[in-house]
Amino acid sequence: MNVLLVRPHTDDKDISRVMPLGLVAVATVLKREGHNPKIIDLRLSETPQSDLKKAMFEFDPDAVGIGLMTVESECAFRLAKDIKAINHNVPIIFGGPHCAHEPEFILHDSNVDLMVIGEAELTIVELVEALKNKQDLGTVKGIAYKHDGQYIKTAAREKILDLNWLDQDYETLNVTDYFNFDCSHEYLPAFDSFMPLVTSRGCPFTCIYCHDIFGKDIRYRSAEKVLEEIEFLMKEYGVREFHILDDSFNIDMKRAKKIFDMIVEKGFDIRIAFPNGIRADYIDDEMVEKMAKAGVYRLALGIESGSLRIQKLISKSLDIGILKDVVSKLAKARIGVNGFFMLGFPGETLDEMNQTIEFACDLDLSTALFSLVIPNPGTDLRDMVIEEGETTNKSFSDYSITAVNSNASKVDPGQLVKLQKHAYRKFYFNPKRAWHIFQTTRSKKLLFSKFLSLLKLTSAWSKRLSYQS
Q1: What is the CATH number of domain 179-468?
Q2: In 159-252, which ranges are continuous DSSP H helix?
Q3: What is the pLDDT of residue 387?
């Protein structure tokens, strides 16, 4: 079958345009099973409507898969409508983190025929075969669909245990399309030619704001497989920087250190970043030393709040008392640290939010992101907000990156936006921040790159926050 895999276009010019590894993984297994997949990434397109029409008419797909995050759900539904306008009969399949939602929130739209829940690689092959042979969809695990007005959710799909099986076929798209600054998942890349990597799946923690798409049991690719992929990408595409997007890369500290050691042993002159973040409580002195030697120059830490009560509420399971020492050691090793913080948890007070801002400013961070809390579908946080009756609005616009209409804190929405602005001003308009950036930069070229990147980033924040108010 011809299977067109699409990432939606988005109006948000600041959203990451990093390679869609999920679609690459799906295309890889479909190709391996004899199907003909094609990826079209409309996030990269300046003319998404015409590019979509061209792909639909020239490729003539038998099925269309759309991978989406919650923040782009509105764009995905518009995309589904556009596809059906071109070919009303082609089945449209939604997949990705947004499909952690219950089926009625996705399949209420008549343009969406099916949704894949959780990991897609095994499910998509069975689903495509069932569509091809017109078999009973109820036998395919890990999907949902609508039949005779009823929402049907099939049995859950078992997790993929052997991640070494998931070799990526990078020929399913044009890799060099993602070799530029604007495509970066990371705000401050060291080199233009970078690639994202996923070396594990799953996370054992129970943070209430996270999707649970990969489950609580961590599954790892072997260190040898990780090095094999790094070496392939270096030789085949000249990649010099890798952004590792795991949820739980360093929880198995022995494996993480082995990967760093193998990079050093092979003499790879590369740079590594962890833009999704790693756990601060799984970093010891030896880890810092090995990261620095292997080329790690930047990472993020998910801190979220400086309030002990909020830390307990969100089930972060993080001792924030260790952070000052951990961040200081990383900075001394010339590894820049980005702190993730969130404002506006259910019941959170103004004093607690100010605790978070003060806590962030007191750390030796290079950068920080202060996000407004959004109760995404499929998370415990969403259930908590609904149970408390703070909001019952199920509009998909609730999940846009600038939304404040799902606010369940003790601070009103207008004040919450002003507080976010205040957090950025207090954090960045501080001479000590420039010193932290200088301290964690290993070359004048990269320092200049960081300076330009920071100007661009603060400009984007300014525009976004002005729009919010």
Answers
A1: 3.80.30.20
A2: 223-237
A3: 66
Q: Is the dihedral of CA 235, 237, 243, 246 positive or negative?
A: negative
Q: What pLDDT, on a 0 to 100 scale, did the predictor assign at position 212? A: 72
Please return the burial class of 7, using the count of CB atoms within 10 Å of its CB with bins 0-12, 13-18 and 19+. buried
2-153: CATH topology: Rossmann fold (3.40.50)
Q: Which residues of the chain have pLDDT under 50?
A: 390-403, 445, 459-469
Alpha-carbon distance values, 423 to 240, 247, 370, 420 (Å):
34, 26, 7, 5
At residue 2, the 3 state secondary structure works out as strand
Cα(469)–Cα(413) distance, integer angstroms = 10
For helices 431-439 and 323-332, what crossing angle results, to 10°? 60
Domain boundaries, the chain: 2-153, 179-468
Contacts 24+ apart (CB under 8 A), 151-155: 151/102, 151/103, 151/104, 151/107, 152/103, 153/102, 153/103, 153/117
Q: Which helix (H) or strand (E) holds 258?
A: helix 253-265
* Residue 441, pLDDT score: 67
Q: What is the 3-state secondary structure (H, E, C) of 26-64?
A: HHHHHHHCCCEEEEEEHHHCCCHHHHHHHHHHHHCCCEE
What residues have CB less than 8 Å from 131, skipping those under 6 apart?
A: 1, 62, 63, 91, 137
- Judge whether 204 and 315 are in contact, CB under 8 Å: no
pTM, rounded to two decimals: 0.89
Q: Do domains 2-153 and 179-468 have the same CATH topology?
A: no
pLDDT at 448: 55
Pair 326, 320: CB distance under 8 Å: no
